[in-house]
Amino acid sequence: MEEIVKINTKNTTLLLKINDKVDLIYYGEKIYDEKDYSFLGQDIALRKCSSADDIDATPSIISFVGDGNNRETSVHIVDGFGNASLGFKVNRYYFTNEHLKMNGLPTAYGNEKFFVIEYKSSISKITLKKYFGFFDDCDVLTTGIIVENEGDANIFVRRLMSMQLDLIQGEYEIISLSGSWCNETNINRTELSKGVYSFGSYLGLSSNVHNPFFMIKNKSDNSCIASNLIYSGNHKEIFEKTELSGIRAMSGINDYLLNYEVLPNCSFASPESVFVCGNSEEETSEKMRDFVLKHIINPNFTNKERPIIFNSWEGLGFDINNKSIPNLATVAKEIGIEVFVIDDGWFGGRNDDTSSLGDWYENEEKFNGKFCETAKLIKENGLKFGLWFEPEMVSKNSEFYQNHSDYAMTIDGLTPIEIRNQIVLDITKEEVQNHLIESLSKNIEKYGIDYIKWDCNRGLTEIRKSGSYFYDYTVSLYKILDTITKKYPNIIMEGCASGGNRFDLGMLCYFSQIWASDNTDPLVRVDTQRGLFLGYPQVSATSHVAVSPNPHTMRKYKISDRFAISAVTNLGYELNLNNLSKSELEEIKIYNEFYKRYRKVLQFGNITTSYENHNDKRIIFTSVSKEKDLAVSVAVDLRCVFAGIYDRVYINGLQDNYVYKVNSVFSDKVNNLEVTGKSIRKCGIYVGNFFTVDSATEYNDFLATEIFVFTKIGEV
C-alpha cells in the first residue's frame, strides 16, 4: 500500500511516495494539497531495460548497494557474514517531536518536528532510520541517517551519505567554494555533464581546498538548491548525471578509508545535512544564511553583537612580553578596540614555531612570572582579554611531549610527519580529552579569559584504526568543545585552522565566529568574502585590518580601504599600534566609532553582493536591516581603468517605496541625498571613480573603496 507524504516548510514542499521504498516525487516551491497526485506519472521501476541500465530509475532520497542501481549509491553496509546486498525495505514511517540519538555529532537546534522513515534489512538485524527535520521559521530541511545494529555480529559501515536528492534531467551548474591556504572560498562554477563530478576532503578537516557548501543551479529557470554539512571532518559531495536517470546529488562523510565497525546493540550516525531551495542564487543564499544564524551558530551568540578585536600576531609575531603588551592595550582602548588578544608565543619556551605546543603555561622568559598581572592590566584598561591556543597539537620539543609522548598520534616504527614542527594529539583517547579540558579550564580561570582563538595548523596523517579514525577524531573534538562551551558559555570562541581550513557548520555549533583566511590583503579578502556569503552569514566570519605593505602580498593600502573590507564581517586589527602615527590612530578611532554605530546591521543584516557591468570591476557588499530602514554598503573598485567608466552604484535589497537619506563615509561624493529604494536599485547613484591620482600613486591601483549609509526617512 503506497502513501503520499508531503513535508512543507514556509515556502517549499518535499513530496514523497512511500511503499516498500521511497520515491522523490517533487522538491521545490510550495504547492497546494491535491486529491490525486497521479498526474505526476506512474512508477517506472522494473521497466524493461538493458542489463547495464538501472533497474529502478525513479528519483529517490536514498539508495543501497545491490538495489539495481548502476549509479553511485548513498548506503554501503556490510553485515557480519560479508553481505553487502541487505534487502532494505521500508518498515514504517512516522512524524515525531523526539530528537534522534546522534552519537556526539552536533545538529541544528530549534526544530521540534521530524519525519522518520525506518528501513529493515530482510536478511540481517539492521535498522536504518532516514530522517528529515523541518523548521517553522524558514525553508531549510535537515536530513541524515542512523544505523542500528540489532544483531549478534558486528557490521561495517563503508558509506553513509547524509543527503541524496535525485533531480530530473536538465542542464545544471554546480557552484562550489574551493581554494587553498591564503586563498579560501573562491566561487567555482562547473557545468554538469554526463558522468560523475565529485569533491571532498581527505586529511581530517573540512578543508580550504573544498568547502562542504555547494549549490545546484538549474540553468533553465535559475532556481537553486543549496546544501551544507554539519561536520568538520572529511566530507564528500558527489554529482552524477546519466542518460536515463537524471541528476543524483549526494553529500556526507567521505567514504575514504571508511569501514566503521558497529558492535551489537550500538549505532552509527551520519553527520546532519541541511538543504534549501529558492528561485535564484540570491534568494537561496539568503535562506541558508538566515538558517545558519538562527539554528547553527552557538545560540549564546545568535543575536549578540561581536566586539572589535586586536590580535598581536601580524604586528608583533613572537616578540611579545610584559613591557610591550600593557602599552599596546592602553593605545587599543583609546582607539575603541574592545578585546585584546595575545596570540602565539605567550606560553612555555615558545620563541618560534619549533617548540612548546602542549606547554600551556606562562612563558617565564617573556613575562617573568607576571602574566597574571599583564592580563589584569588589560582588563583594568576596560578591555576583554583573549589568548591563542592550538590544543590539538604538540611539539616534540616540549615538556609535555617528553612526559606524555603516548598522547601523540604516532604509529610504532613509523616516523611521524611533522608539519610546522608539530604532530597531532590523539584526542580519541579519553585521557587526552580530559587533559585538554583541564588545561584549558585552568588557563581560563587563572587569567580570566574572555576570548579564545582556537587554532589548528595541520591535518591528520598517522592514521590508526583507519576505518574509524577520522570520524572518531571529529566526534572527540566535538566532545571537548561541547564541554568547554557549556562550562564557560560567555567566552567568545573563534575558530581558526591555518585560516579557513575548518570553516564549516560543525565548528559554528560551538564557535561564535571563524577566522576566514590568514591572508589579510583586502583584494584577496574580497573574493574570500563573496564566496563565504553564498552560504554563511557575515557575523560568522572575522577579518582584520593588517599592516601595510601587506605581509602576504606586499601590496600597500590606505587604512580606509583596509577598514572597509574588514567592516563587512566582524572587525579586528592585527598590526603594531605603536608604529602608527597620531593621525593614523585618530583615523582608526573615527572608523571604530562608525563601526559601533552601525555594527548591528553590518553583522546581522541581510548581506547582498552586487556587481557593475564592467567585468565585475565594481563589487558592492550591502547589509540591510530586517526592517529595511537602514543599510550600509561597502563598494569596491578593482583596478583603476582609464576614462572613469565607473560612474554609478546600484544597490539591491532596499525597499522600493522607502525614501532614503544617502551619505558617503570617506568623501563627499554623496551628501544627504534623498531618493527612493527603487530608483537606487534601477537607476543607480552617480559616484564617479573611487580612485584618485594621489591614492593610486602612493598606494596602488588594485583596490579603492567607499562606504555608503542608507537611512529611511519616509515612504512614497
Describe the 3D structure.
- It is a single chain.
- By secondary structure, this protein is of the alpha+beta class.
- Strand 7 and strand 8 form a beta hairpin.
- Residues 44-48 have low confidence and may be disordered.
- The strands form 7 sheets. Strands 5, 6, 7, 8, 10, 11, 13, 14, 18 and 19 form a 10-stranded antiparallel sheet that branches. The protein has an 8-stranded parallel β-barrel with strand order 20-21-22-25-26-27-28-29, surrounded by 4 helices.
- It is globular.
- The chain contains 15 helices and 37 strands.
List the defining traits of the structure above.
single chain, 716 residues, alpha+beta, ten-stranded antiparallel sheet, eight-stranded parallel barrel, 15 helices, 20% helix, 32% strand, globular
Give the helices and strands, then pairings:
Blueprint: E1 3-8, E2 12-18, E3 22-29, E4 75-78, E5 88-96, E6 113-121, E7 126-134, E8 141-149, E9 155-167, E10 172-180, E11 183-191, E12 195-200, E13 210-218, E14 224-230, E15 235-242, E16 246-253, E17 260-262, E18 267-269, E19 272-278, H1 281-295, E20 309-311, H2 313-316, H3 324-334, E21 339-342, H4 364-367, H5 371-380, E22 384-389, E23 393-394, H6 399-403, E24 423-424, H7 430-447, E25 451-454, H8 469-487, E26 492-495, H9 505-508, E27 513-515, H10 522-532, E28 541-546, H11 559-567, E29 570-574, H12 582-597, H13 599-604, E30 606-611, E31 618-624, E32 630-638, E33 648-649, E34 658-664, E35 673-676, H14 677-682, E36 685-686, H15 693-698, E37 703-715
